[in-house]
Amino acid sequence: MDGDLNNYTARLRTHHHRELAPQPPAAVVLVVGYRACFAAAPKPGTPVIAFAAITAATTTAVAAPMMALISVENATQVVRVRSDGSSEIDWEEDPFEIFGHSGIRWCLMPVQSAPGGRFVIAPGSWVAGRYQAVLTRSTLSHAPTAPTVVAVHNADPHTGHTRW
């Protein structure tokens, strides 16, 4: 793997019960870029902003699965009705998550190359599987508020099968 690409590989580890879960089929994944979202995870085909050192051409010979670092800012919709009958919609954090998830959640999602040398979210539905990724300093330099360890979303929620 190219030296610059090594800076963007994330080491995988099992999420729960290390002794019970099988080891990841891939020891590392290549984090090619990031995507920030509001209220919901990105849909398949959503473009990803590639890191400067990474292009579709440089990843053609890479055997590691390609992933994107995703941040999803969740908030609770609050509708305030004024005395004149009009309303105002606002988004607020729900610290106790009574009305749903709040705050920013981070994960890795599968990507694929697209025409024009871009990367897009891979087709399918993706939820957290049994693995986590330990991000490198190079990856974290592009997303300074991201945690060092994030969930890897490579499982199909309908079948339970994983992408790799």
Characterize this entry briefly.
The protein has 164 residues and is mainly β.
Helix content: under 10%
Shape: elongated
Give Rg in angstroms. 18 Å
Count the E strands: 10
Helix-strand topology string: HEEEEEEEEEHE
List keywords for this structure.
mainly beta, eight-stranded mixed beta sheet, two-stranded antiparallel ribbon
How would you describe this structure to a colleague?
With 164 residues, the chain is mainly β. It contains two helices and ten strands; from the N terminus they run αβββββββββαβ. Strand 5 (76-81) and strand 6 (87-92) form a beta hairpin. It starts with a helix and ends in a 9-residue tail after the last strand. The relative contact order is 0.24. The model has no long low-confidence stretch (mean pLDDT 85).
